[in-house]
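ok trying this again, last paste got cut off
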Amino acid sequence: MSTTTTTPVLALLFLAGLVASQPGNGAGNRGGLGRRPGVPMPGGLRPSNVNDATIQSAANTAVQRLGSEYSLIRVNSASTQVVAGTLYHLELAVSKTTSSQTGVKNFTCNVKVVEQPVDVLH
């Protein structure tokens, strides 16, 4: 009976990846895996200005989808990710108008809004 063990090979590949990503490994000033400091990774999240008109529009779109009893107080944080379009990751402060006895409730919600050009959808 023959037994094949692949775990050590996988562990070695994992360890080799860790060593390759460490500073001072011959990658120069590129931060390990060939990335330059301050340059975003393709497909990665990038922080965005919460006051940007596009971010505000995405936030308003998300709140409108929640329903007419919800309103946007502010955008707490925002980041974007380039996918087949743009994916907005937003943390919103939102208020919800409830019955006249309980008034208004404020809460924080995390939403994602995707914006895709029409030609990507086909």
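PB: full thing came through this time. The CA atoms of residues 36 and 116 lie 28 Å apart.
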